[in-house]
Amino acid sequence: MTATALDRLESQSVYILREAYKHFEQLCMLWSVGKDSTVMLWLARKAFFGHVPFPLVHIDTGFEIPEVLAYRDRIARELGLFMVYGANEAALQAKTTFADTRSLPEGDARRLTRKQCCALLRTQALRQTLDGSGPRYRLDLADGQWKPWEDKTPWNGVIVGARADEEGSRSKERYFSPRDKHQQWDVGDQPPEFWNQFKTDFAPGTHLRIHPLLDWTELNIWEYIEREQIPVVPLYFDRGDGLRYRSLGCTPCQEPICSTARTIPAIIDELRSGQLRDIAERSGRLQDHEGRGGLESLRRDGYM
Questions:
Q1: Is 289 contained in some domain?
Q2: Can you give the residue range of the structural domain that contains 172?
Q3: Is residue 169 part of a domain?
Q4: Is residue 171 part of a domain?
Q5: In angstroms, rounded to a whole number, what is the distance separating the alpha carbons of residues 268 and 28?
């Protein structure tokens, strides 16, 4: 039987996941609960024969869509996942967020931009969760309750569902992409990866991001979701108002696109038709439109 393009992508991703597990002891996987990281979760289950041998980590900004959180908890319990979440509780308690300060007058130093808020609630929360300096909560699979988790062991290998075609800065990534001890990314200091030869021996203290989906496209993701019958958050589909979300984020910082696609085959047809050719996949993520540098400036500081 001839291997399809999806088969080859799946095989490569499974190989990357197994290599990561082989070479990095303190390993976790980020699960944003979006379509890409959910495909990555399914690939991990294939790579390890139905079991995911490392924790899944979600960053809760405090402004997550309720349907996203409900989906996360349901899937985690159904699959028996080792599920952890972290949050920047200090920023949330102090109300230093875009949503809490946007009504302040222009020029008020307390007023945060969306990007500044994202740096606190996503980037800083992620860094603190990964290095163990921030709070961690683990899902109790027996009763479905989130409980404080006292293990503060740092994770220095992090599997991320970034795709090169999704956004410009992600096209500069490697499958095995080193960060410094502060989880910061030097775009110009990335190892070459020729002919499927990957550098996996890094100096002590190196923080590593692993990207199994790097060569997948948005269309590949939806084709794989259809083939594998992967459940996704319903927000990706038009529910009768001619709108759907193409990329999921925080409630104050995302907008839907105009689309009547109500099913996975309809989304695939929409992508194949070229209707969205001139619309960026993350066009509804409003923080990306602020200032120069967009998402790359956040990613250099440790964003996903």
A1: no
A2: 5-216
A3: yes
A4: yes
A5: 31
Instruction: Look at residue 43 and give its three-state secondary structure.
Output: helix
**Cβ atoms of 199 and 176 closer than 8 Å:** yes
What are 229-279's pLDDT values in tens digits? 999 999 999 999 999 999 998 998 889 999 999 999 999 999 999 999 888
Distances in Å between the Cα of 245 and the Cα atoms of 17, 52, 233, 277, 290 are 28, 28, 10, 16, 20
129: its two tokens = 């969760």
- The mean pLDDT value of the chain amounts to 89
Q: What is the rounded CA–CA span in Å between residue 43 and residue 228?
A: 10
**By three-state DSSP, how is residue 51 classified?**
coil
The length of the chain is 304
Angstrom distance (rounded) from CA 256 to CA 180: 36
pLDDT interval class at 224 (50, 70, 90): very high
Task: From residue 251, give the alpha-carbon distance in Å to each of 1, 26, 218, 248, 285.
Answer: 45, 32, 22, 9, 10
pTM value is: 0.90
CA distance 255 to 251: 8
Distances (CA, A) of 279 to 246, 258, 271, 283: 10, 11, 11, 7
Contact yes or no for 56/79 (Cβ under 8 A): no
Q: Where residue 9 sits, what CATH number does that domain have?
A: 3.40.50.620
Q: What is the largest CA-CA distance in the chain?
A: 64
Q: For the chain, how many structural domains are there in total?
A: 1
Q: What is the 3-state secondary structure (H, E, C) of 142-175?
A: CCCCEEECCCCCCCCEEECCCCCCCCHHHHHCCC
What is the average per-residue pLDDT within 277-283? Answer: 83
Residue 259 is assigned to a structural domain of this protein: no
